[in-house]
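Take a careful look at the sequence and tokenised backbone pasted below. I need to know what the token row says about the fold.
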Amino acid sequence: MQNSLSRRERQIMDIVYRRGEATAQEILHDITDPPSYSTIRALLRVLVEKQHLQHRVDGPRYVYAPTLSRQKARAGALAQVVNTFFDGSALQAATALLGSTQVKMSEDELEELSALIEAVRRKGR
């Protein structure tokens, strides 16, 4: 599966994930600053070719759905970011995230993160 997506392709994937499945018309309705209907259809074809979407026929229209669950897609995207920008180091990625002024974590989130770290330690990973 190709991982690089254009801005419009990401917008379409966000809509399809949010809806669970969507037609080209539904995507056209939901997308910010929409391009033409034919452009949406062309982008959907590209996303099917890249194996990000699959489709089924429903009367005269195609209904598109993701090929991966959102969780699996997130894991794959995160692994790519860690490998590309942090030399495969989870520590460097976590340090950048925790040290970022653009990402704020609540006390509850920090507690949950601490619990996850402890659980990983117990598993011996």
The mean pLDDT is 91.
